[in-house]
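As the work plan foresaw, the team has encoded backbone shapes as discrete tokens. One protein thus recorded appears below exactly as we store it.

:::
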Amino acid sequence: MKYSLRFKITAAFMVVTLSLFALISIFANFFLANQFKEYMLNRQQQTIGSVVASVTQEFNDMSDARDIAGLETVGMRALEAGLIIRVKDIKNSTVWDARTHNNGMCMAILEHMASNMQSYNSNFQGGYEEKTYPILADGLQAGSVDVGYYGPYFYSDSDLQFLDSLNSLLIGAAAFSLLACLLVGAAMARRIARPIAQVVHTAGSIAGGDLSVRLYEESSTREIVELHDSISTLAASLRHQEDLRKRLTADVAHELRTPLATLQSHVEAMMDGIWEPDKERLRSFHEEIVRLSKMVGDLEKLAFYEGRDLALHYERFDISALAERLLVNFEGAFNNKNVAIRFMGQEQFLVADKDKISQILVNLLSNALKYTPSGGEVAVGVEGEPGEVRVSVKDTGIGIPEEDISFVFERFYRTDKSRNRMTGGRGIGLAIAKSITAAHGGMITVQSRRNAGSTFVLKLPRKPKQPDQA
């Protein structure tokens, strides 16, 4: 059976509260029993001492053996305190005995004490005990007093009432705490469960295709805020990916439509006898077919570089030397367009796939050359830190509109919405560069302003990540 988060949190609060109070009650009763036992033993000794002192005074004040009224008063007062006394003279003759005076009362008191102790603890082991204390007169023993009681200690009715009141207080506190815990736990569970329920509802809406939903409810719980932010970010990311997917579909359709339409119109013209299938027209057909083949090749290349199983062949090489060699290869193209090229960097070694890093640099240099007008400049810089190498490609070209910067690394993305072949390629170079960089555990970023040029920065780790560090 499945239970709601609110029920589980509330139940957990109640279980914890009950458990704590059970432990507190057990320890409190154990500690109180020991302390109260010590208190009763001390109080019993003090009461016996007081009775012996009173008996000694009354015994010494007796004018003759028949003057026992004072002893009788002391004896009855002691009997009320649960003590049974017997007074003897120096000859060991009984002067006054509580049992002789009222044996029924003595037995009733002993039975009542035994009943009290059994009601408090059914396993209590006790019985009648008696101790003898000397009666002194001028430093000499004049007699003795036997003090009997239910031992080793006993609780009176008022003592049991005190203990019962204490236990009732603990039970009342437990009940009150349980009620308070129920209310507080329910309120807290509601505060925790409600935003989670909203996340579940929002996730369901996202799964159903509604990518416009967002969570804006504020919370003082950090994890709840992070969960809300994650769901909102997920929805925004999915919305962004959906927009890119639609644009990709439109871009691919646009790229395919032109050559297919050209081929169709030319073939129909030939079928209708309007055109002759001469060499010039067949060459035009071939050009369009080549364009389609290149497009399919680009798609295959992009799928290869974006694949999860992209194989990297690591080797140690100097990326500065690699960049300088590629610049030499581009030198003729830069001179033909009258674009100056400048290199700054020192020897920087790293372990990576040299061919694929070359592909990234070639793509960046091609873009810089393509979008930098005559008279402009492209600067390539290489620098490093203990664990990282950075390569920057800065141009003075047309720049990238601010609204397009976050999309330049997406497949088939072109800032030129007309997708004119004279203003750019098919929009996969930067997507491939991003995939290769990610496979190496690096990062590629861009900073640009319209008509102020662009700066692409490639960051690569000097050593590849180990499997356990991935």
User: Anything to note?
Assistant: Residues 418-424 have pLDDT under 50 and may be disordered. The first helix runs from residue 5 to 61.
